[in-house]
Design a protein that fits this description.
It is built from one helix and eight strands; from the N terminus they run αββββββββ. With 174 residues, the protein is mainly β. It has a single domain, classed as Porin. The protein has an eight-stranded antiparallel beta barrel with strand order 1-2-3-4-5-6-7-8. The relative contact order is 0.20.
């Protein structure tokens, strides 16, 4: 009986391990700050990099938490505002085909540091919003991804300013 239980447990462990994947990704951010008094703000081009963990719920549905370093912000005529975040998006991924999915979910961010020229805005350390996008697998592990992040919390303690970010990523799932 012990051998049967052991064989069944090993079989389920193998299935579970195949239903999960670890990966890395990085890419470009095209960010801006929107809200009160941001009419002169322009797109700030920067980057993001991090790791992901894909968990298969069904063949066509997966959940993917990520841990990323993401530089966001905006440009003005005189300043380049940089807000460096530790971000954790948690995405629901619906596979339309084997190599293509749509994804959406919440994103939690913590401000690590900021450029000196943003200190007057009294930055908030926590940012929350929603992200959504598309992902296409070029081959078994290599993928490209496009996403939009819509911040819902104010990043400034003085003015109603929120993050908006378009991300273009390249990654690999092992």
């Amino acid at each position: 009986m012990k051998k049967i239980v052991l064989i069944v447990l090993l079989a389920f462990t193998g299935i579970t391990m195949q239903a999960q994947a670890f990966g890395v990704k990085g890419g470009f951010n095209f960010s801006n700050l929107k809200g009160s008094g941001t009419e002169d703000f322009n797109v700030h081009t920067s980057f993001h990099v991090g790791v992901l963990y894909e968990i298969e719920v069904f063949d066509f549905f997966k959940v993917q938490p990520e841990i990323l370093y993401s530089q966001q912000g905006a440009k003005t005529r005189t300043d380049d505002i940089k807000l460096n975040y530790f971000t954790v998006p948690v995405l629901a991924k619906l596979y339309i085909t084997d190599g293509f999915n749509v994804q959406a979910g919440p994103q939690f961010s913590m401000l690590l540091n900021e450029s000196d020229n943003f200190e007057a805005y009294k930055s908030e350390t926590f940012d929350f919003g929603f992200t959504g996008g598309l992902e296409f697998f070029i081959n078994k592990g290599l993928f490209v991804q496009a996403r939009y992040y819509w911040g819902t919390t104010e990043v400034s303690g003085v003015r109603d300013i929120k993050n908006r970010v378009v991300q273009a990523s390249l990654g690999y799932v092992f």
